[in-house]
Amino acid sequence: MACVQSFPPKSAKECRKIIEFVDKTNPIISMMIEFEVLTGLRYSDYSKLKLSDLMINGQIREEITVVQTKPFSKRVSSGMKEKTARELSKVVVYINEQCRNVIDEIMFINNWDAQKDKSKLLFESSRKEGSPYTIQYINQLLKKAAFALQLTYPLSTHSFRKMFATFYIKNGAAIHQVRDALGQSSLQATDHYLRTFISENKQFATKISF
Q1: Residue 78 domain-assigned (yes or no)
Q2: Which residues neighbour 125 within 8 Å (Cβ) at sequence distance 6 or greater?
Q3: Cα separation, 124 vs 131, whole angstroms
Q4: What angle separates helix 135-148 from helix 12-25, to the nearest 10 degrees?
Q5: CA 9, 15, 193 angle in degrees (round to 5)?
Q6: Helices (H), 111-151
Q7: Is residue 168 part of a domain?
Q8: Is residue 75 part of a domain?
Q9: What are the pLDDT tens digits along the chain (210 aa)?
Q10: What is the CATH number of the domain that holds 23?
Q11: Buried b vs exposed e over 146-160: b needs ≥16 C-beta within 10 Å?
Q12: Distance CA 168, CA 127 (A)
């Protein structure tokens, strides 16, 4: 399936407005979005996370290791052995305080117990037990949010992975650190990825006036 074109929110304030708009329709989806901004994981990866992936001894882990679906599939389809592909497709995700709060809130809303409900999907759909909300449904909500908030760019779930990368850059991360955080294969891949939504020329074009 082709990836929906998307851009990250232009600021943390705008990102929060989007999340608040979605929250009025579906609080779980709003927390999915917040989780993606905080972790940089793709929908294909965070939608599969179970409570047990995030908990240890009844507590939320400080970090988790995720085998990314997209690069794993691409490596296997190109002929790489599954064991090697799995190792190369791993990314370490750090769980900060805000991310912990999201997980705690999800557990509270669902009235989950860390031990009894550990097999539950973190973002389980209220429409279908044992399944996540579909990416189509989430993107429909985001399309409504973009229209209601009069955004001048398209939104999709991937907008918030890009927002994660933007925060990394604004916080002073070097490109190799962004690469590692996104779990990408090379600096070239990361550079190309960043150029899809960060333009060095925009700062000059916006200053033209006569």
Answers
A1: yes
A2: 28, 131, 132, 133, 134
A3: 6
A4: 120
A5: 35
A6: 135-148
A7: no
A8: yes
A9: 444 478 999 999 999 999 999 999 999 999 999 999 999 999 999 999 999 999 999 899 999 999 999 999 999 999 999 999 999 999 999 999 999 999 999 999 999 998 899 999 999 998 888 899 999 999 999 999 999 999 999 999 999 999 999 999 989 989 899 999 998 888 888 888 888 787 654 554 545 545
A10: 1.10.443.10
A11: beeeebeeebbbbbb
A12: 35
In a domain, 179, yes or no: no
Structure tokens, 111: 């009235």
Contact 184, 175 (CB under 8 A): no
Range of the domain at 33: 12-151
> Do 94 and 62 meet the contact criterion of CB atoms below 8 Å apart?
yes
Q: What is the DSSP string of 150-182?
A: T-SS---TTHHHHHHHHHHHHTT--HHHHHHHH
Domain count, the chain: 1
Overall pTM surpassing 0.70 (yes/no): yes
Residue 40 tokens, joined: 């940089």
∠ CA 112-158-88, nearest 5°, is 85
- The Cα–Cα gap between 44 and 24 comes to 24
